[in-house]
Specification:
Number of strands of chain A: 5
Distance between the termini of chain A: 70 Å
CATH topology of chain B: Aminopeptidase
Strand order of the largest sheet of chain B: 12-7-2-3-4-13
Number of strands of chain B: 15
Strand content of chain B: 25-35%
Helix content of chain A: 25-40%
Oligomer: heterodimer
Number of domains of chain A: 2
Distance between the termini of chain B: 98 Å
Structural class of chain A: alpha+beta
Low-confidence stretches of chain B: 17-36
Number of domains of chain B: 1
Order of helices and strands of chain B: HEEEEEEHEHEEEEHHHEHEEEHH
Radius of gyration of chain B: 29 Å
Number of helices of chain A: 9
Low-confidence stretches of chain A: 1-29, 53-67, 242-250
Strand content of chain A: 25-35%
Mean pLDDT of chain A: 81
Strand order of the largest sheet of chain A: 1-2-3-4-5
Largest sheet of chain B: 6 strands, mixed
């Protein structure tokens, strides 16, 4: 078999770019290309498709290998303090147990709120936080939805993040007791952090700090006022398997 | 031709493969990048009242001494605080305690006697009859209660407008911004001997304390919203009121939106005289114009604001 001429052609004698630009057409004889010419590109394209399907995240489903599935990271706020505030002259120490009890209930509500708002991939991938808003009382719900970008991971979080995990949260609760020493209102003072892995590979420490005023319902507590700040920033991932960028940035 | 197609195919394949691999490459280079601040943001909602109808609150300082019936003692200070939620504005109107007025069911007497005859409710009716203002709430405290309120919030920052020295009240202040303890704030509120217009000037200083409290409350709330509970509890423990706790909370949230710089501090003007052997204050026609103004929209128009009774000291 004769050696294909294009393999022997000295460099510069066949300039594809110039040919395309100048519109030159040089008739060539019929040739047979070696299989590698087709196999390699085809394999590369196939590889690309496979890799894309494996590693894509956000926008309608996580990848398989990057942990971007719909698993919700385990999370609970750590209660650091429960403080009773009285409108009567009784000693606050008498009502520490009441405050602890209320703080536990408020902590549950806040854990649900932050899990739904920041950690549940089924919510943030779609930018839909329907489970969050009922935790706010009617009067504050519209304002909360309007501030959704701050109170949640955001409507476009699915485009931005591949993964959010390693949540940490601290919370202290002040409980105002009424004249009959029943809980009237509570303030949850929260600090929440989680590690987001952005689509460009950078790591973002998601930080939410603020205060929520809650009122008791028959079966829990509901937010009626809030003052919350977001202070996300890029962090350097710590090396090693036991690394914890969240802790490093705390 | 086929060679060109092959080269193009190679280029396309390399582009797809390369860019795909680039997407999934682990984030090593992030470590070398500077830390970035990303979109700091704040979200807030204050459940303030938002009506255009003014809310009128009568603040009463009882002159009761220890052991006295607080609700049936002479009223030592009388102020109306009006809040206009929709405008985030407010006004304070002081009524001199010696104002000679008609007390419903009793006849003419000094206004401070109304509480002796019928408790806070009769004083409310008397003020309503005098001003035409329909009062929504009343709040009554004592000398001790007032001090306790101030101490419960950690003191009150007041811009003392002029030097004050009075052994009767215990006031001893240099002018300037200073944080007053409960006993100092009480002395500031009670001092009338340092002031040329006596009780008129003292009433203005009472209004000054109310506005100072609004300013401090607003500032503390902005920094730490949970302070609202401390203020409300401190007030509730030391002030008697018919207002339920949830309404006091709503009022407190509403007060956080009021800019204290835009709160007028007015004292009903009048002249001193005698009636039945006791010194009294006869409120002037200008006072009635202020009452009418306040009743209309909860605020006092600039044109109706009288000169400060402490004007000569203010310089």
């Amino acid at each position: 078999m004769a050696t294909p001429r294009w393999l022997c052609e000295p460099p510069g004698t066949g300039n594809l770019g110039r040919d395309l630009v100048e519109g030159r057409h040089r008739p060539t004889p019929q040739r047979r290309f070696p299989p590698a010419v087709w196999i390699v590109p085809t394999a590369l394209v196939a590889l690309g498709v496979v890799l894309f399907l494996l590693f894509r995240g956000g926008g309608g489903g996580g990848g398989i290998l990057d942990g971007g599935d719909d698993t919700i990271p385990a999370f609970d706020f750590r209660l650091t303090r429960a403080l009773p505030i009285l409108v009567t002259d009784k000693k606050p120490t008498q009502f520490e147990a009441t405050a602890e009890d209320v703080a536990g209930q408020v902590s549950d509500t806040m854990t649900t709120l932050y899990t739904e708002a920041f950690l549940d991939p089924a919510n943030w991938r779609d930018g839909s936080y329907d489970e969050v808003w009922p935790l706010f009382e009617d009067g504050s719900q519209a304002a909360a939805e309007q501030d959704g970008a701050t109170l949640t991971l955001g409507p476009s979080a699915g485009d931005r993040f591949d993964k959010v995990d390693q949540p940490l949260g601290r919370l202290s609760v002040k409980v105002l007791l009424d004249r009959t020493n029943q809980p009237a209102t509570a303030v949850a003072i929260v600090t929440f952090k989680a590690l987001g892995t952005a689509k460009d590979g950078t790591h973002i420490l998601v930080v939410s700090t603020g205060q929520y005023f809650l009122r008791p319902l028959s079966d829990g507590w509901q937010v009626y006022s809030f003052s919350v700040s977001r202070d996300d920033h890029e962090v350097v991932p710590s090396p090693g398997p036991s690394s914890s960028p969240t802790a490093a940035a705390s | 031709m086929k060679r060109r197609i092959a080269l193009v195919s190679l280029a396309v394949a390399a582009w797809i493969g390369g860019s795909t691999i680039g997407v999934v490459t682990p984030p090593g280079p992030a470590a070398a990048q500077p830390l970035l601040q990303i979109e700091p943001a704040h979200a807030g909602y204050v459940p303030a009242l938002d009506g255009s109808k003014p809310i009128f609150i009568l603040f009463i300082g009882s002159g009761a001494r220890p052991g006295d019936d607080v609700e049936h003692s002479l009223a030592d200070s009388i102020h109306i605080l009006s809040i206009v939620p929709a405008k985030h504005k407010a006004a304070v109107l002081g009524i001199p305690r010696d104002s000679y007025v008609s007390i419903p069911g009793t006849g003419s007497d000094k206004i401070n006697a109304a509480m002796v005859y019928g408790g806070p409710q009769l004083l409310v009716e008397t003020v309503e009859s005098l001003t035409g203002v329909r009062l929504d709430y009343w709040a009554l405290t004592t000398f001790g209660g007032f001090q306790a309120v101030i101490n419960s919030i950690g003191g009150l920052t007041v811009d003392v407008p002029f030097a004050m020295q009075d052994s009767a009240s215990g006031s001893d202040f240099e002018p300037g911004v200073q944080k007053l303890r409960g006993d100092e704030a009480l002395a500031f509120a009670r001092d009338r001997h340092s002031l040329p217009a006596g009780d008129f000037g003292r009433s203005e200083d009472g209004g000054r304390l109310i506005i100072a409290a609004l300013a401090q409350f607003r500032k503390e709330f902005a920094k730490d919203p949970s302070r609202l509970l401390t203020w409300v509890a401190g007030g509730f423990r030391n002030v008697q009121t018919q207002a339920p706790l949830d309404e006091v909370l709503a009022l407190a949230f509403t007060c956080t939106l009021v800019n204290p710089k835009h709160v007028e501090n007015v004292v009903a003007p009048g002249s001193t005289g005698m009636a039945g052997g006791t010194s009294i204050v006869s409120l002037s026609g200008e006072a009635q114009m202020i009452f009418d103004d306040l009743r209309k929209d909860g605020l006092v128009s600039k044109r109706n604001i009288p000169p400060s009774p402490n004007e000569s000291l203010l310089g």
